Amino acid sequence: MSFWDHLEALRGTLFRSVLAVALLSVVFLCIPKPLFKAVLWPTQPDFPLYRLPGIHFSLDLINIDLSAQFFTYMKVSVLCGLVLAFPFVIWEIWKFIAPALYQQEKKAVGKAFSLSSGLFYLGVAVGYFVVLPVCLIFFANFSVSDTIVNTISLGSYMSLFTSMVFLIGFLFEFPTVILVLSSLGIVNRKQLKKWRKYAFVVVLVLAAFITPSDPFSMFVLAIPLYGLFELSILLCKK
Q1: Which of 40, 52, 59, 170 is 20 to 30 A from 90 in CA distance terms?
Q2: Domain total for the chain?
Q3: Which residues pair with 62 in a beta bridge?
Q4: How many CB atoms lie within 10 A of CB 83?
Q5: What is the pLDDT of residue 211?
Q6: How many CB atoms within 10 Å of residue 105?
Q7: Could you tell me the pTM of the whole model?
Q8: DSSP per-residue string spanning 102-155
Q9: What percent of the chain is modeled with pLDDT above 70?
Q10: 43-102 pLDDT, tens digit each
Q11: Residue 28: which of 72, 92, 90 has the closest Cα?
């Protein structure tokens, strides 16, 4: 294939991927009440984590921007469309790069792509059911003075929701990258074990960027992220 043929194939891949995300986003736009019932569930007292003994939590949100609810509705619909379309997008990317790989490389990279969707959804679940509610409990109950009342806005909640759920989903793709590099002979298990102490520092820095930079939420996110590094070591063939 010529350069222009490759460019045309890439254009088709991007078009089909964007179309899939757009169509699924439209579906979510048509069901605003069920969508936001799920998005706002971590603020309700019947959320699974809050049913544990000794945990009682709920959060009332306010809206202080006239257009905030509309744009939040649009943003969440697109993000949910992207989440649901993720396996299709991964499949499209795989179809684009597969012809350029040797048979041995196809087998190695194919396993990583097969694993990627499961890890992505696992990351979304960890962010939604564990990290997000833990951070909500901490921030809502933290106060520097009894004279200050926490009043949480919709925009503030959605910012935390996005970083804790969607970004964690993408971060959970790290083991698939290591699996590909390991299969191609670029990294091995011995090297990763040597990098453990550096990986822990990198994970802490990354968690600090994603979270609101307080020690508690940073460590809540850093724990599963470091667990991914240990999983990557186990996935290495050598």
Answers
A1: 40
A2: 1
A3: 153
A4: 18
A5: 65
A6: 15
A7: 0.80
A8: -HHHHHHHHHHHHHHHHHHHHHHHHIIIIIHHHHHHHHHH--S-TTPPP-EEHH
A9: 93
A10: 999 999 888 888 888 899 998 888 889 999 999 999 999 999 999 998 888 888 877 777
A11: 72
Categorise residue 185: left if φ over 0, alpha if ψ from -120 to 50, beta otherwise.
left
Tokens encoding 118? 């499961």
Residue 5 — φ and ψ, nearest 5°? -65, -40
b/e 183-199 (16+ beta carbons within 10 angstroms → b)? beeebebeebeeeeeeb
The DSSP result for 2-34, as a single string, is: -HHHHHHHHHHHHHHHHHHHHHHHHHHHT-HHH
Residue 88: how many other CB atoms lie within 10 Å: 16
pLDDT at residue 115 tops 70: yes
Measured distance between the N- and C-terminal CA atoms of the chain, rounded to whole angstroms: 35
**Residue span of the structural domain in which 21 resides:** 3-235
Average pLDDT over residues 104-109: 71
Residue 101 CA: distances (Å) to CA of 41, 96, 104: 44, 10, 8
As beta bridge partners, residue 152 has 61
Task: Give the three-class secondary structure for 62.
Answer: strand
Judged by DSSP in three states, 61 sits in strand
> Chain-wide mean pLDDT for the chain?
84
Determine the Cα–Cα distance for residues 80 and 179; give it in Å rounded to an integer: 27
Tokens matching residue 110: 């194919």
